[in-house]
Amino acid sequence: MxxxxxxxxxxxxxxxxxxxxxxxxxxxxxxxxNVQYDQMLEGAKHAIEENKEKPKHQTAIEKGLFExxxxxxxxxxxxxxLTWVYQKSxxxxxxQKLGILSKTPxxxxxxxxxxxxxxxxxxxxxxxxxxxxxxKEKLRVAFFTGCVMDSVFFTINEQxxxxxxxxxxxxxxxxxxxxxxxxxxxxxxxDEAVALAKQNIQMLEDLNVDRVVNNAGxxxxxxxxxxxxxxxxxxWHQRALAFVEKVEDITKVLAELDGLQFTKPLNYTITYxxxxxxxxxxxxxxxxxxxxxxxxxxxxxEMNDPDxxxxxxxxxxxxxxxxxMKILDRKMGDAEATNAQVIVTTNPGCLxxxxxxxxxxxxxxxxxxxxxxxAEARPIAK
Amino acid sequence: MExxxxxxxxxxxxxxxxxxxxxxxxxxxxxxxxxxxxxEAVVQVTSASQVSGVMKIANHYRVPVTPRGQGTCLSGGPLxxxxxxxxxxxxxxxxxEVYADDLIAEVSPGTLTSAIHREVEAYGLMYPPDPSSxxxxxxGGNLAENSGGPRGLKYGVxxxxxxxxxxxxxxxxITRTGGRTIKNVTGLDIxxxxxxxxxxxxxITSATLKLIPKPKAVQTIMVAFAxxxxxxxxxxxxxxxxxxxxxxxxxxxxxxxxVEEYEPSGLPQNAEAVLIIELDGxxxxxxxxxxxxxxxxxxxxxxxxxxxxxAEAAARIWKARKMVSPAIATIKPTKVSEDATVPRSxxxxxxxxxxxxxxxxxxNLVVFGHxxxxxxxxxILCDQRxxxxxxxxxxxxxxxxxAAIDLGGTLSGEHGIGTMKSxxxxxxxxxxxxxxxKRIKQSWDPNNIMNPGKIFAEPGQKLALSHE
Lengths: 382, 468
Prior knowledge:
The complex is a heterodimer of chains A (382) and B (468). Chain A has 22 helices and eleven strands. Chain A is an alpha/beta fold and 382 residues long. The longest helix of chain B has 20 residues, at 387-406. Chain B has 468 residues and is of the alpha+beta class. Chain B has a seven-stranded antiparallel sheet, with helices on both faces. A five-stranded antiparallel sheet of chain B has the order 5-6-10-8-9. Chain B has a four-stranded mixed sheet with strand order 1-2-4-3. The interface between A and B is medium-sized, with 11 and 13 residues. Chain B: Pfam families: FAD-oxidase_C, FAD_binding_4.
């Protein structure tokens, strides 16, 4: 990047190495000199993106995707709904039989095959926007739904809210929230990331809550860095700092509330695949493990090198499929060696990748979000 | 069209091991020191036979080969000064075979030094050399540069823990030096010649390391002083009192300030000099030694003494010591890091000279380092884009080198000569000394393809930190 900035190599030449970077930020955790690589990477992507000459149709598709599709929860919800129709109608089986899915150039098909069953549109619409604590209220929180979580993993969001209320938090699900903007920032689309951040910051200012809770490692990592999107000293920077102060991952909130008791023993051996953005950006490593260890009957068997990225990395597994699979194969080897029946994750991207990885490597292992596992152990208010 | 030798490399090693794209070459054009030199090809090797293959081709076509580990070198060792091939060993799979009963370990060159520390500890053993970069640097690089570290005070440096090597010669022959026994006087000691030879004699492809039993306990002490002279006195008094600490580290006032601004770590902010001491050994012995050290410090009127009671509290102090390097890097963008070393008794005098140099050239000069063994790290914080400032820095560095030599010390305690210090080599070891070294180099590497441009200065070569 320095060489490109000095004009020794062209931005075009920088493109491939930058695109091959997972952005897992493990280098930041180990860096002896605290290099702010996250900002450098996004800066480089921004420069490359601005400089790029793209064919017209690609620009149009990307514009649609980033400006309207991902940020719009309505659009994302309809993906969820379409997925539901697709699965329920038998089209999925039909397509899988024909092998249509594996022929899409972006390898979307592979991942579609491991999507969970979707809730019906009716279930989606009937979600309560305000849910009081189911024991003495200790905390008031806003629940950040996340685009992918809310469309593809809707049930996990439902379970998240249930766990929070059981543990003693009153939950609101603000309608005004929008996409966290992580995918935009990672794609070098700085202006859109800023616009989305502003909307979320505003959303929280209008609410009387102690925290904004999310259950996607990647979203949390973007939101705790909102202040970096604005110039220091500016009004928006101040407002972003106030927002950042309240952002918290659900595992941390649940561990802090300490209000759950699990009634059903789960006789599994599990292993934990931490989300890179949880470990290296949010720096949350203790609490998820703490929660797992509270589950009756569960024994946690850590895999070799758990902090090695699984290769999901946002949309890396779709745009850099071959590289991603090399990484995934190594990860699945480590996961299989633990003899765990269940692989636990804390981020939707990792979850999909682990689901896909288990099928690809035929390990027979089941991948779940930590929230699903907690819900499975029949929690009650303590 | 690509050169014939690149073609041959691809045929011998496979295309995946040979990189010639502009971005790949640029990625290997620098290290932790100064200067950028573009190689013509980057070759990633993972076995001795591959290294042999590369060397045979390079020797045939007379192409320079520069071995490289993780590129953390502070003296320019992995810089391809004459172009040619950068031989990257960082992708070589880590391998540590511990033979606990023999107190040795066999390691591959791509293994991280910290991984060796961890692995042998599981056997109750210790590999003492502990360069600050151990969690990033490879053992191959440590061996080539004969790296030191804080524990050098009591335990010595890398060369003191190597008893055997597998080496590929510049002609591509694979050979072994030394063996697996502590005592070994069979023939000339080629092992010691290779360790610290900065890659100019051959490529290390495996090493047999000597291990020692891990001390049962450690105790950290942090002491602050009102002046550098008293801190110097504290070091010499301790070392002549019958106690040999495992570490005695020193941080000056400017470094303390930088660390506290960067990440508040509880260092005594008013102190002119801070010493961080570590004792190791049996618990009962340590307790006695601790009391004796504390008495010395009190008699010398230390302004602050901290004795951490838990391992966590001690770790926080050592973390603060590790923060010095990143913290001072925030003062200005360019960091010129030196490792001039003087006899212990000369530390206060060297500190005085450094202070004079700081005044004379009006530069940001801070000092920290391994005070116990006289190995100081004067660091100059400057801005490479400021030509005028860099000229002053060049002059200051020259004077630092000369000051160390004048006090009976050496140009480099642990970083190596490489490119930056080569113009000063003759000042320290004389014409005959340089000539002897050159003769060894010529007989080992008649075609001068092994890391050319290092250790020995080209005619008329000067220290150059500024670009004109």
